[in-house]
Every structure is written in C-alpha cells, then in structure tokens.
C-alpha cells in the first residue's frame, strides 16, 4: 500500500531531520516544522508542507477498520523521495546568497557621501569594496563611525579610498568571513552560529572562487539569509 510506504518514508525524513537539528532546536515540537522554518527548506517547502498535511491525515484519521482514509498518489511518493534526497545532500551556500552582481558595491573612487546615501536608501549596513583585483574591502556603518572619530567629518570630496585601512577585510574587530564557492549552506550556518555562541556577531559572509580577498565576488550572505534574522 502506498499509504504504508509514504509513512515509512516520512519516518526516514524525520530521522534525518532529528540528526540535523540535534544540537540546535528552536523549540518546535516537530522537526519537520523546524525545517519548514529554516531558509534551507525554501526550494522544497511547498511540497514538504503538503507531505506533512497528508501524513497527519493518514496518521490521525482512519475508517472503522483502521484503514487510511486516503491513498497517496505516485506523485506524492516521488515528492517525498525528492525531499529526502534534498535533505541528505549538502546545499551550496551560493543558492542562498545575493549574487555578487546584485550586491550594492563600492569602488575606491566613489564619493563616500553618495555611497552612504545609497546604503541608507536601500537599508544596507555593509557594501563590499571592489577594486581591480576583485573584493578588496568592506565599507560599513562602523567604518564611517571610526573615520569620523579618527579623521574628522566626511565631506563632499571624501572618497572611499580615503578610508584606507578602515575598510580592510582583516582589520582587528571586523566580523567578515570569506569562503570558497564550494562552501555549503551548513558551512555558513555553522559560522554564524559559532559567532553567536561567543556573543559576537558575524556581519557577513563573502563568497569568492577560493575564499580569498582579491577575487571576484560571487555572493554575499548575512544572518538574515541563513538564520532568518538580522
């Protein structure tokens, strides 16, 4: 019977998700609901929610003889197989990143005030600085604050390049991480969660070809992209 096969597969899925969230549950009684609230589930969320509803129907409803009130279609079984396959395979972080060409970016010759206005208008606190070699720094609200404290006001003639080492990716106190293009969703999630455990905040993850500065920016991720919050 397809109903029995469906329920067996659903238990397999629950087992996989129990392993996934063994160390970081958010209080949901169901691991499936936990996963539905995870950004990782987005590509399969609609199908998974249908499977969840069907599972509840099969489990909690039956005719007087104990037979299920519905029989899953082959398409539903195929969907559940596909969801299990998806959960088992590490998903690439780039799937969840803002593509590099869509990120609000800065260049060394840009007027700083104009960039700050663009960031404010679009609600961004960080803008990667792109130079001849690729990703070379990050212009942020914090860098503006430090510039004003150390060097004075930002005027109409102030360029991004004038911020100098305040925009360095490896500046002490900066909270950015560079990862290679084959990094997985879990690599990024683990990085954000490890920073949170230390009461620190990883502001952004930048993905380049080999995870090094001076390479083309392929994507950018924030805590919102991965953890669903800022």
UniProtKB/TrEMBL annotation:
Domain CBS: 97-157
Natural source organism: Candidatus Pullichristensenella excrementigallinarum
Matches recorded under InterPro entries: CBS_dom (IPR000644), CBS_dom_sf (IPR046342)
Database matches in Pfam families: CBS
Domain of life from the UniProt record: Bacteria
Keywords: CBS domain
Protein name as catalogued: CBS domain-containing protein
KW Phosphoprotein (keyword) present: no
Lineage of source species: Bacteria, Bacillati, Bacillota, Clostridia, Candidatus Pullichristensenella
Keyword hit for Cell membrane: no
